[in-house]
């Protein structure tokens, strides 16, 4: 039996609490989220609150994904605070405090909520329902969204029920203007190292200098089908992949004993992203149930929200990005160099503010704490990076940037997509 860490137990307990309290929702408006403030002491309030919703949006903008924005205090939010603390060299207790809040507020200079007008395209390609049985899935033309609400919740990194909560009278039809939360635009930096930490349920990605770029919540394997060990190369990254069910190689689902092809779509077995690893049959992929990342189990792979998986797929470099799976009992902090604590922020002269996301920067210089995150010594058994050819994925394929431009009233920025192999 594998070791079971106290951190893993705490995360499971914290995750169970908001799930059991999902019906205990509070009245909340976009104005409540905008005006929410930290009192200066104590942790997040229990259950659902505007303060937790605001925290989740700010974490998303800081490159530390909280999973879905739903306003509930729980395991994913706690793991995201721990990751944010790790990024800034702070004590990792997963609790909100004045230092963490002051750093997060640097990303709050632009509105956290906005308005979005639903288009005819948003209602295109919907399916009636997604069957559980794989044989029935294989008969369908697409594993598409089942509603406009589901599509838009995913686009804006929100829980479906939370989107409905902010729009109590919405019908989610074309021409209707709804309230949404405003996440960060997808990062387009290249990442050459990914660290998977099953115990904390986090996946951290670093650039060539060892700087932390993004950090996501994840489901990593299960007791029946554990995740791989060691280091593996990213071989390819595919958006909207088919899924091949083969009971002779992987798991058996129900009575299905034949190889099946399941069509692509966000509600497929691997969501709408597959990042293929050099370890046969293993990869990093999306999920049809983002709100249950810390509850569901995966069949050995690494499961992210669809939006996090899409962002990562456009940042990896096939043949060069290495994925390190940590051994039980080893943390991300232990395989990266110590980080000097980021001091309480003060906006310096000459600092600039991102016009959409509001992140205060120094004009391009990496945070000293992030720059100190250099890769750990590479073991002799680590795979050798090599370049794999592959066409670039067009930035236009990602609707989030255009939707955020509509929500915030800004012009579309030119983005450069990273190579993704098909």
TrEMBL record:
<keyword id="KW-0808">Transferase</keyword>
<dbReference type="GO" id="GO:0016740">
    <property type="term" value="F:transferase activity"/>
</dbReference>
<dbReference type="InterPro" id="IPR005490">
    <property type="entry name" value="LD_TPept_cat_dom"/>
</dbReference>
<dbReference type="GO" id="GO:0018104">
    <property type="term" value="P:peptidoglycan-protein cross-linking"/>
</dbReference>
<comment type="pathway">
    <text>Cell wall biogenesis; peptidoglycan biosynthesis.</text>
</comment>
<comment type="similarity">
    <text>Belongs to the YkuD family.</text>
</comment>
<dbReference type="Pfam" id="PF01471">
    <property type="entry name" value="PG_binding_1"/>
</dbReference>
<keyword id="KW-0449">Lipoprotein</keyword>
<dbReference type="InterPro" id="IPR038063">
    <property type="entry name" value="Transpep_catalytic_dom"/>
</dbReference>
<keyword id="KW-0573">Peptidoglycan synthesis</keyword>
<feature type="active site" description="Nucleophile">
    <location>
        <position position="301"/>
    </location>
</feature>
<keyword id="KW-0133">Cell shape</keyword>
<feature type="domain" description="L,D-TPase catalytic">
    <location>
        <begin position="192"/>
        <end position="325"/>
    </location>
</feature>
<feature type="signal peptide">
    <location>
        <begin position="1"/>
        <end position="21"/>
    </location>
</feature>
<keyword id="KW-0732">Signal</keyword>
<dbReference type="GO" id="GO:0008360">
    <property type="term" value="P:regulation of cell shape"/>
</dbReference>
<dbReference type="GO" id="GO:0005576">
    <property type="term" value="C:extracellular region"/>
</dbReference>
<keyword id="KW-0961">Cell wall biogenesis/degradation</keyword>
<dbReference type="InterPro" id="IPR036366">
    <property type="entry name" value="PGBDSf"/>
</dbReference>
<dbReference type="InterPro" id="IPR002477">
    <property type="entry name" value="Peptidoglycan-bd-like"/>
</dbReference>
<dbReference type="InterPro" id="IPR050979">
    <property type="entry name" value="LD-transpeptidase"/>
</dbReference>
<dbReference type="GO" id="GO:0071972">
    <property type="term" value="F:peptidoglycan L,D-transpeptidase activity"/>
</dbReference>
<feature type="active site" description="Proton donor/acceptor">
    <location>
        <position position="285"/>
    </location>
</feature>
<dbReference type="InterPro" id="IPR036365">
    <property type="entry name" value="PGBD-like_sf"/>
</dbReference>
<dbReference type="Pfam" id="PF03734">
    <property type="entry name" value="YkuD"/>
</dbReference>
<dbReference type="GO" id="GO:0071555">
    <property type="term" value="P:cell wall organization"/>
</dbReference>
<protein>
    <submittedName>
        <fullName>Lipoprotein-anchoring transpeptidase ErfK/SrfK</fullName>
    </submittedName>
</protein>
């Amino acid at each position: 039996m594998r070791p079971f860490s106290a951190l893993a137990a705490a995360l499971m307990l914290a995750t169970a609490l908001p799930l059991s309290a999902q019906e205990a929702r509070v009245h909340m408006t976009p104005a409540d989220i905008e005006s929410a403030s930290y009192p200066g002491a104590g942790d997040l309030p229990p259950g659902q609150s505007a303060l937790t919703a605001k925290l989740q949006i700010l974490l998303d903008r800081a490159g530390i994904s909280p999973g879905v924005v739903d306003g509930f205090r729980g395991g994913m939010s706690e793991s995201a605070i721990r990751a944010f603390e790790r990024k800034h060299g702070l004590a990792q207790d997963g609790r909100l405090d004045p230092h963490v809040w002051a750093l997060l507020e640097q990303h709050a200079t632009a509105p956290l909520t906005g308005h979005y007008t639903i288009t005819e395209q948003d209602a295109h390609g919907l399916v009636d329902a997604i069957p559980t049985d794989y044989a029935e899935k294989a008969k369908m033309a697409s594993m598409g969204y089942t509603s406009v609400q589901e599509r838009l919740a995913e686009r804006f990194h929100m829980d479906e029920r939370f989107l409905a909560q902010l729009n109590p009278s919405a019908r989610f039809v074309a021409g209707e203007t709804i309230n949404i939360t405003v996440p960060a635009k997808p990062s387009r930096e290249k990442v050459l190292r990914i660290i998977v930490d099953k115990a904390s349920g986090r996946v951290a990605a670093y650039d060539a200098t060892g700087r932390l770029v993004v950090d996501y919540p994840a489901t990593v394997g299960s007791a029946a089908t554990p995740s791989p060990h060691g280091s593996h190369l990213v071989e390819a990254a595919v958006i909207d992949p088919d899924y091949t069910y083969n009971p002779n190689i992987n798991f058996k689902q129900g009575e299905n004993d034949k190889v099946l092809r399941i069509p692509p779509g966000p509600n497929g077995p691997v969501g709408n992203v597959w990042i293929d690893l050099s370890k046969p049959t293993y990869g990093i992929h999306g999920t049809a149930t983002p709100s249950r990342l810390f509850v569901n189990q995966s069949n050995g792979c690494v499961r992210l929200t669809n939006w996090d998986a899409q962002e990562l797929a456009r940042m990896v470099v096939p043949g060069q990005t290495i994925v390190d799976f940590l051994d039980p009992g080893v943390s991300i902090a232990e395989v990266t160099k110590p980080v000097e604590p980021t001091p309480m922020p003060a906006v310096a002269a000459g600092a600039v503010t991102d016009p959409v996301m509001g992140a205060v920067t120094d004009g391009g210089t990496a945070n000293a704490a992030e720059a100190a995150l250099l890769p750990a010594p590479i073991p002799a058994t680590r795979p050798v990076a090599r370049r794999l050819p592959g066409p670039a994925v067009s930035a236009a394929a990602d609707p989030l940037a255009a939707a955020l431009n509509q929500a915030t009233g800004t012009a579309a920025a030119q983005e450069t997509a990273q190579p993704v192999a098909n």
